[in-house]
Amino acid sequence: MVFHTYCDKREPPVPEDMRAPVETPVLLDFLTCCAGLYSGSAAKNYVYGVKAWHTVHALPWRVDENQLTAALSAVEKMTPPSSRRPKRHPVTVDWLCKVAGQLDMSKPLDVAVFACLTTVFWSVSRLGEFVVPSVDSFDPAAHITRSCVSQGTEGRLGLPVTTFNLPRTKKAPNGEPAQWSSQRGATDPEAALAAHFTINNPGENDHLFAWRSTGNKLVPLSRRTFFRRVERAVAAAGLESMNGHGLRIGGVLEFLLRGVSFEVVKVLGRWSSDAFLLYLRKHGAILAPYIQDTPVLEPFTRIAMPSRIR
Question: Selecting from 3.40.50.720, 3.30.230.10, 1.10.443.10, 2.40.50.1070, what CATH number does the domain 93-248 have?
């Protein structure tokens, strides 16, 4: 643990009885050493690790929370540029269409990649929920398989919905559902998934986006393979590179720009908090309809804008 390494290297070393239960001055001095070297999120994780260790061992947590909050805020402000992630740009429907133009939908890998792209985008999901970390790491109990997909109708109107019962996610260890419906145009996830099933035809217990490699062997779609193929298509189309989270951000923005309410987008993206509202503040395209000098948008604002900020 980083905290204990810090304690051991101090001159003199921090005594054991000051590490557990940890004294406020010791923890603050530790954060002072982190400032300018680590990102604010890394420092928070270190602190929460120390706090969790106290909880596991039934030790009292006597740290002054006000001082701790102030110290963590200072560390965040001093995050070195090398530790800051570049801004993640949202994927758009137009971007997806141009990438599709560089893929050969008669090829097993290409059709699997595009089906994965459209599913992640339109279900506002995390890419990691639909690809595997590596080919050899595929586990039917942890990763989505074809048997996890169901198609049916929902609600009084009987509208068609495709549901993906994810076995395990970042926020739900016991699994949760993701959903999309058919969309008009070249990025229709239903058509893309059907094409993938026609060409690759994974079995019920195979990875959902498994593709047929040399010798007709089914291979789970790994994150690395996915990105390598997408990046080649992106380069050929002269587009800006994407990262996995760009699909999730793009899905959020697409639905918000359609006028779908924030509450519905929150449910669709499976957020338990209002963290996704960060997208609202970062992208002017979302704010534009709300800040015009016209009363015509007032009903739209009342329906779509979250109640806590309208």
Answer: 1.10.443.10
